[in-house]
Amino acid sequence: MSKRTDIHKVLIIGSGPIVIGQACEFDYSGTQACKALKKLGYEVILVNSNPATIMTDTSTADVTYIEPLNVERLTHIIEKERPDALLPNLGGQSGLNLCSELEKAGVLKKYNVKVIGVQVDAIERGEDRIEFKKTMDSLGIEMARSEVAYSVEEAVNIAEKLSYPVVIRPAYTLGGTGGGLVYNVDELKTVVARGLQASMVGQVLVEECLLGWDELELEVVRDSAGNMITVCFIENIDPLGVHTGDSICCAPMLTISKELQAELQRQAYKIVDAIGVIGGTNVQFAHDPKSGRIVVIEINPRTSRSSALASKATGFPIALVSAMLAAGLTLDEIPCGKYGTLDKYVPDGEHLVIKFARWAFEKFKGAEDKLGTQMKAVGEVMSIGKTYKEAFQKAIRSLEIGRYGLGGAKDFAEKTKEELLDMLHVPTSERQFIMYEAIRKGATIEELHELTKIKPYFIEQMKELVEEEEKLKKFKGQVPPADVLRQAKLNGFSDKYLSKLLNVEEDIIRKARIEAGITASFGSIHVSGTQNAKYYYSSYHIQDNKEPSSSGNKVIILGGGPNRIGQGIEFDYCCVHAAFALRDMGIETIIINCNPETVSTDYDTSDRLYFEPLTIEDVLNIYEKEKPLGVIAQFGGQTPLNLAAELKKNGVNILGTSPETIDLAEDRDRFREIMNKLGIPMPEAGMAVNVDEALQIARKIGYPVMVRPSYVLGGRGMEIVRDDEDLKIYMNAAVGVTPDRPILIDRFLHNAMECEADAISDGTHAFVPAVMEHIELAGIHSGDSACVIPSLHISKENLDTIKEYTIKIAKEMNVCGLMNIQYAIEDGIVYVLEANPRASRTVPLVSKVCNIQMVRLATQIMVGQLLGLPSPVPNLKEKKFFHYGVKEAVFPFNMFPEVDPVLGPEMRSTGEVLGLAETFGEAFYKAQEATNHRLPLSGTVLISVNDRDKAELFEVAKGFADCGFKILATKGTFDEIVKNGIPAEKIHKLGKGRPDILDAIANGQIDIIVNTPIDKKGADDDSYIRKAAIKNRISYVTTMAAAKATIEGIKEIKHNTAKGVRSLQEIHCMIQDITE
C-alpha cells in the first residue's frame, strides 16, 4: 500500500456548530476520517467547537480539542501538538476557510505542516470566484455570464450589463449565505451589501440568472494518481432558483439522457483534475432543456451535504475513502467485495433514492416561507424505494410533519384551482402539497410546468397518484379488494394515509393487508470498499425476502429522524453510543433511521441498518422480520417516544422506562399529583381548553403566566403572557397546535434561576453527575440558554435539594435509563418545572464535561435487566471538577433578516458550542468566541433596557465602566446610569432625533449592545436595534444575566492571560473522585 510515510500525526478541523447549511453531515465525515486514519496507523488530533458530536468524543481521535475554530486558537494547538499534516476538506466550509487563513497567516509554513487532501491553491481555485472562472476558461468549460464585484457600485454596473434578474453569490460562504436572486436595483443594493459582509474576502459574484434550468450534481472522487470515479448522479427535482439544500432530489437521474450524463461526467472530470482535489468533490451543473446549453455553477472541493447524501444513496463511504486517498492510497489499492477494487466502481444500484428537506419556518415569527438561492432547510430525510412513487411517498412520511401522504395538507383542499395556482408563483416549502391539490382541482401538467418549471415527468407521476387516490376513495368505509390494496402499496401509499382516505382504522387495514399476503420485503445496498457490509430498505416491489436475519440476541434502536430545531444531532449521539455499548455487551444492534446526514446511518455504527421512515407501519415490518429482544425508544428524542405506546400495544417489548411512565411525565395533572405526594413544590398551574377557562385560571394564578400546549419538544408554541388581552390572542391562535390536548398555564417565576439535572437511574438507585446552571433566567428555553457545568451560583443546600428531588422522582416513577429534570430556584425555593424520562439534548454535553458515559451506562441498565447483569449505578461516584464548561447556543437569525432575534420560551437555536477553561469567565468568553461573536475587550457599549431591568442596571453599567468601556445609553437608561454617578452619553432612539442608534451602528461607533426587549410591540418597539446588531455583526445580549456573564468574561481575559489550550483528555485527567 502506498500510504504516506512522511507524515505521522494528522490534524483534522471539524465544522463547528450546526447552522443552516452546515449540519451533522460533517460529524459523519469527520468521524469516518478519524476511523480511516487511525486504522492506517496515524495519530489523529481533532479540533471542533461542537460538543454534541460523536467526533468530539475522546475515543474518536487520539487527542481532542473542543476550542473555538479560529486562527489564533489553532495556532496554539499546532504549536503544542506539532502535527505533520492538516486534513481540511472534511470540516465543511469552516475547515476549508480556516486552512486558507492559516496558510495566509504563515502558520503552516512556520510549523512545517503539510496540507493533505486538498491543497491551499486548490481551495482558492475552487472557492475564489475569479480563480475558478480563470480555470474554467482555460478548460473551455462554459460558466454563467458573470463578473466579480467588491462594492455595491460595481455590482450595480455589472447587473445593468447582464440585465435583471441576476444572482448574487458571495465567495467563501456556505448554504448560499448572504446571496440571493434580485429583480431590481434596490434589491441588488441590499443583497450585495449583505453578501460583501458575509464573504470572508469581501467579494461577490454577479451572475446571469438561469431560473428554471435543470440543476444537476455529480459526486466525483479522485486519487493522487489522477484516477476518477463518479459515485453518484443527482437530479434536483426543483429547477434552478431553489438552493440545492432546499431542493427535492433524486438519484439516479430520472429525466436526463445517458448521453447528457456522459457529457456532464466528461466535464466534471476535467474540472476536478484541473483543481487537483484528492478525495470527494461535488460538481454542480445547470442545463437548459430548451437549448441544451450546459453551464458549470460551482464546485465544492470538500465533502459536502451532497456527499453525505451520495454516500448513503449508493453505499459508497466518500469521507472514509477520501481520508484514505489523502493519506496516499489510490483507488486501485482499496479492495471491494463487489467490484474487486474501487477504481472499477460504477453507480449501478437497483434502487431509487429521494431526498426531501425539512424546514422550521414556524419557529420564526415573521419569517417568510419562501425558497430561493439562500438555504433555509434545517434538516433532511432520504428514502429508498424501487420506483419514484414509492420512494417519494416514503420521503413524505419520513419528514415527521404529521403528514403521511401528499393530500389533505393544511387547508389546500378547500381552495379553488385558481387560488392554488396563484400560490405557486413563488417556491415555498409547501409547493408539492399545493400542486397535488391543484391537480385534483383539474390543473394540467402544462399549467403546473409553466408555473414551477418542474419537469413534466415528475408532475405526471404526481397526477397518477392523485388519480389512484380518487379511485381508492370509492371504497370509503371498507378495506378495498386485495388487488386495489396491493397496487396502492406498490405506489407507496402508507397504511396510515389509507386509513385517513378510507375512514377505516389503521390496524384493520394492516390486518387485512397481511391476511391478503401483501407485505413489504427487504432489499440491500452493498457498501463499497468492504467485503460484504450492506444496509437495508423495504419495498413492495421485492418478491421474496432473500436477506436472512440472524437468530442471536439483538436489540433495535430507533433513531431521531430528520434534524430540526429542538431535535438535533444530540439525539443521534445517544443512538450511536447505545449501539456501541450493545456491541461491547455482545448484542447485535439494529438501527432504524431516515436521516442521511448522521453517524447513526453510517454502515458500521450498527450490525444492521434499516434506512426507513420512523412510523408504526415501517417499524413493525422490521420488528416482525428481526424478532429482537426489544426496542430502545428513549434515545432518539420525541420521534420514537411518540411511537412507543402504539408499538407496545402491538406487542413490541420497549426496553427501559415504560411508555406509561413517559406519558405520566407529560400529563401535567398526574405529574403534579406525584410531586404533591413526594412533597416537591411546582409553580401553580392549570389546564384550559377555551378562552374563558384560560382567563379564569390566569386571574387565579396571577400574571405573568407561561402558556404552552401539552406534549411538545423544543418549546413549540410556548409564550409568556402578561395580561388578559394577550391571553385571548394566544388562545384564539393556539387551539390547533395539538388537538385533544389542553393548553397548560403556569405561574411564571420572576427572576428565578433555571437549572437542570440529568440523571442515570435503574429504578431503585439514581445518580446525578452534575447540575447545570442556566445563565439566562427562567423564561428562556433551556435549549437556547447559555449554561455552565458545574454550577456557579447555586448554594450547597439548593444543590443537595436538587439531587435529592431528582433521585426521589426517578425512583417514584421507576425510571430505567436516562432522565432530565428542569428546576427553577426562586427566593431560595427549588421548584420542579418538568421531568423528561428520556435522553435530553444535554447528554453529550454532560458526558464530555464530566467525563461520564451516560448513554453507555443507561444502555447497560436497560439490557442488563434482560441478561441478569448487575446495575452500574450504585458504584458511580461524585466528582470534583477543576474546570468549567459553558454551552452557548447558535442561532440562524442571519438567515431570517426579517425576524426579531430575541429569545423566549420557544427554542430557536440550530446548534451549540462549548467553551472549556479553568474559570467561568474564560469559558464564557471562549463559548462566545466559538459562536463567532468574539466579545470586544474595549470600545463603546450601547445600553438600552426596559423598566423591569432597571434594578440591575447599576451593576451592569459599572461592570462595563470598570472594564474601560465608554457607555452610550437611551434616555431612561441614561438617566438611571448617571444618577448613580457613572459617566455616560445620551443617544437618540429611532425617530427621536439624529444622530440615532442606527447611525451610530452604521458608522461603526458601537462595539457591543445590551438591549432587553420591551414586551409590548408598539410605537416604541426596539427590535430594530437587535436586527441591526446582527446585520452589522456586533455582539449583542438581550438579557441582564447574559450582560453580567459577558462582563465577567471580558474581565477574565483582560486581567488574566489565558492558560493556553488543553485537550479534552488532559482536562478529564484532572477530574477527581470525591471520597466520602
UniProtKB/TrEMBL annotation:
Give GO terms: molecular function aspect only: ATP binding; carbamoyl-phosphate synthase (ammonia) activity; carbamoyl-phosphate synthase (glutamine-hydrolyzing) activity; metal ion binding
EC numbers for this chain: 6.3.5.5
Coiled-coil intervals, chain numbering: none
**What does the UniProt keyword field contain?**
Amino-acid biosynthesis, Arginine biosynthesis, ATP-binding, Ligase, Magnesium, Manganese, Metal-binding, Nucleotide-binding, Pyrimidine biosynthesis, Repeat
Q: Which PROSITE patterns does the record match to this protein?
A: ATP_GRASP, CPSASE_1, CPSASE_2, MGS, PROKAR_LIPOPROTEIN
Q: Which residues form the ATP-grasp domain?
A: 133-327, 672-863
The reply on keyword Protein transport is no
Might you name a Gene Ontology BP term for this protein?
glutamine metabolic process
Q: Which GO terms describe its cellular component?
A: cytoplasm
Q: Which reaction does it catalyse?
A: hydrogencarbonate + NH4(+) + 2 ATP = carbamoyl phosphate + 2 ADP + phosphate + 2 H(+); hydrogencarbonate + L-glutamine + 2 ATP + H2O = carbamoyl phosphate + L-glutamate + 2 ADP + phosphate + 2 H(+)
Q: Which InterPro entries match?
A: ATP-grasp, ATP_grasp_subdomain_1, CarbamoylP_synth_lsu_oligo_sf, CPAse_ATP-bd, CPSase_dom, CPSase_lsu, CPSase_lsu_oligo, CPSase_preATP-grasp
Xref: Pfam families: CPSase_L_D1, CPSase_L_D2, CPSase_L_D3, MGS
Tree of life domain: Bacteria
**Which intervals hold domain MGS-like?**
933-1076
Give the enzyme class. ligase
Could you tell me which pathway this protein works in?
Amino-acid biosynthesis; L-arginine biosynthesis; carbamoyl phosphate from bicarbonate: step 1/1
Q: Which family does it belong to?
A: Belongs to the CarB family.
Q: What is this protein called?
A: Carbamoyl-phosphate synthase large chain
User: Which organism's genome codes for this protein?
Assistant: Herbinix hemicellulosilytica
Gene name in the database record: carB
